[in-house]
């Protein structure tokens, strides 16, 4: 499980914010050597009365089976590119639970399966320096706003050489409505490690969607018990209205699973104040 | 806990379907040797905010105390006949989560306590070859559709000789509305084991309800790691409109708690297509 | 975890009532010797879909960090005086889940943080015979009925000498609405142990609220496996309309975590019948 407690400045007031979570991890092995398992949090278990959401319904947490053929996961899985590249460096004890006043966080704006409530399939496979992944929604009435039965697909690949990894991802929303072009997004991502410093950068090019492009970079450096991390991202909206946002944070490891952590995040939207948080993260 | 992942054909489309569950099992013993305990799933824990449903409220999961006098269970218990006879053989990796296009599954249509959201009491007692059970709802505003304070009762008995068990059950819904006759259902059930084959059959005769009778039979044979199972049931509605439905499935045990499983189910309702599922069940 | 099962008389009917609960307890220690942790029940985990309530959102369960400076807790914490004085002696297998026909229980009517759904901070510190506590709500839109952004604060202190503890608490609701006086409540509490008998008494004086005063006393005596407990409380409403209520109960310890328990509770409201319950409490 994990927990956190601290104070949050939302641009107007300081407030307390805390939480506690328990994670269930299940695993087994078949006689033939296939590994299988699943994982979800107690608050994701679902509501057996309504079956509207949860690990019990397959749109929270996930299950998997893996072997020489790779790993097949089902449930609330990430899209193929997010599975390979992840997000930018997290800042503050609230992580991506607190963003800027307009909602920007360290999360990379992937096109598909990024809201954590869809049931989908993810396939990943690694062979030496190469990793590939594919993902798709489950076909059960995915209504992404069009009122229809939309589907999402994505593929991604990554190549690692020494301390460098580069990757490419491609995501598609296949809108159900007639005469509407598929929205697609191509992502280029790079990760590098220089001594105690990790750097991650991406560029995303969207077609037939609501933005032109998004790009960002983050860096995190650790010296002793202290880690300093920062990120900056920009979204170029169609027809102007670009937004840049960033965050910077400091972690201090208290040992035993407790980390003191603070961050400031802001964006360049007119009239938007910075946000901040300072507290302790626990892992048990 | 347990989990599953696979593909489901609902008569129109193939879709993915997965889930993960954790089961809590609690037990203890008094100084005098009485055993007590309880069990519920994480998704059945309930919502402490509303208290509308869940093990916390007593209408999901159950608790029990047992001794020489038998076993008293409270919560979301089965009716007396279901406690002794169970349901027909399950087919497919989805079990009774997927039925035919009109909802038929391997579940026997017991009259009472069969929807899993009622709080009730179940008493069971075994002595040698004889088993008896009694169940009743808890009296807390059970509205089964009449808009009133309906009550349900049931008794059942079973006798086992060698590889054969025969049993009788009787269930009553005591409608609160004035001038409405109690709905009753009498069930006759038989279970037999022939080598590696299990057979179960039942006949249910309803009075003052919406059906005349229901009957069904299932068989399951295991050879090595493979189990083949099938069931067929029929409901005779009052004034005609009978429905027959059936399912056939194959399980292949992968060992370690993983079972590959597939099934086809269908009914004879006009215009209704077969359904199917194929996937893996996990138990942890 | 814990559970219970039994029968309840609500003043009109006897009904069954049962429940089962699981408690998650998390803890750790930093390299510097600070202790941290958290606790919540499975039914308090929260609903990850809505984030409306739960340990995941910080208004159920709690997290803490403690050291030589005292203990800081966040989440669904008690008010400062409740943290030091608790409630009167509990009666019956239902505890405070069943009260009199008008809702009176063994709970002391603290002014703040007593409904179990607010996110707040609690600080406690003990040095020798002295204990102090302070609590406040988290500033996140606490609407206590005024439609505004109300805040609550409380402080309390206790002094223990031999088998006696006396304490003082002071609670404030700072209503957000303009021109409305803060509601305050001063509490005096005393706890004494005489051999196998525990006695607790309090007097609460409210200003600018809906009552004038509240007071009560409870006693619990244990002889062998049997404990007899009782409480009586009174609320003096502004402009008359005083209510007195009481409860008496007997527990019999079966060992192994099971306790047989029954109680009767009643109030002096005209036309109100006594309530009762009898059953078994389990702790696992």
Number of helices of chain A: 1
Rg of chain A computed from alpha carbons, rounded to a whole number of angstroms = 20 Å
CATH fold-level name of chain A: Porin
Largest sheet of chain A, in brief, is: 17 strands, antiparallel
Largest interface: A-B, 39 and 34 residues
The SSE string of chain A, one letter per element, is EEEEEEHEEEEEEEEEEE
**What would you call the quaternary organization?**
homotrimer
The overall average pLDDT of chain A, rounded, is: 92
Percentage of residues in DSSP E strands of chain A: over 45%
Total beta strands of chain A? 17
Q: Termini of chain A, distance in Å?
A: 5 Å
Q: CATH top level of chain A?
A: Mainly Beta
Would you identify the CATH H-level superfamily of chain A? Porin
Low-confidence regions of chain A:
none
Name the shape of chain A in a single word. globular
Helix content of chain A: under 10%
Task: Classify the secondary structure makeup of chain A into a structural class.
Answer: mainly beta
CATH architectural designation of chain A = Beta Barrel
How many domain modules of chain A? 1
